[in-house]
Amino acid sequence: MAVMRVLVAPDKFAGTLTAVEAAEAIAEGWRRRAPDDELDLAPMADGGPGFVDVLHTALGGEVHVVTVTAVHGERVPATVLRVGDTAYVESAQACGLHLVEDLEAGGVEVASTTGVGELVAAAVDGGATRVVVGLGGSATNDGGAGLLAALGATSDGVLVEGPAGFGHLTTVDLAPARERVAGVELVLASDVDNPLTGLFGATKTYGPQKGVREERIAEIDAALERFAVATDRRLSLEKGAGAAGGLGYGLLCLGARREPGIALVVDAVRLAERAAAADLVVTGEGAFDFSSRSGKVPYGVAEVAAAALRPCVALAGQVLVGSREMRALGVESAYSMVDLVGEERSFADPAGALADLAARVARTWSRPASE
Questions:
Q1: Are 250 and 161 members of one domain?
Q2: Which parts of the chain are beta strand (E)?
Q3: pTM above 0.90, yes or no
């Protein structure tokens, strides 16, 4: 019987497994049921947490560790991945949600993206002529003001203390920051297409998940509007300006162009070529729901599988869509760890639970090793 070829291309399972760990767990479980199958592991990311790790796995290159300023002034390690003349950095390493212990304490109002600017500076100082910044998973909402300040921007307000520092701000001089990155191609990798402010802006859309209370949304959004007026309000309306609490806007102010994060990673790992060589594509993420269509990994992987005329199935911590929505996302079937082993074990032993789920899925989708 011909060997079955399976491409394993999951995202991270947020809070429990990195994309690399998820791919390995799926492979371990799959081999338990179908040891003769050929597995091709392609961990994925969309620009958020795990972006640099996934690209390093796919592209190799040199990883340089630097120490940067986190959201509330702490010093934390972060990495710059150098591949040829291109440097890749991940904003979440400097301003991610995992760096904040208490989201309910209102810390987002004084949280800064300074560390992301320091990462970009380290990449430029290292000689990179192209810097790709992965956006996502941020605990900040400062419009990229901290990033701009770290690269040399000045103001009559305070740029490094989150939107709380914009109270009396009227002018921002971006020239020093723009000069700092002159001659460098900047790319913001994000699938978020929100503007900076307004009903669909960074604060209204993503603020609540960062601890912003409903009664504070209007005031914080007004602070970002004040910052935009002092810099380049036209750019604040661009798609992606609201990504990562407005980090997208800060990068747009420096002349960056936006690329969909999932598309960038798909190209980097040669996913289309690998899908064409497979018989089945397996993807996954922590929670598979209809928001997965908004530039998330499973939808991007499913699109690639469809283009290659290959079936795609998803493994997830939880599956929160029905079969109709699932197929609208390009996924044949989706399987839940919680449904198989329960919520407690899914969180206590995520790798083991995901491996068990993969073994169960292999029973349906793989040719049995023996009868």
A1: yes
A2: 5-8, 38-41, 62-69, 75-83, 86-90, 130-134, 154-155, 172-173, 185-189, 257-259, 280-288, 312-319, 333-336
A3: yes
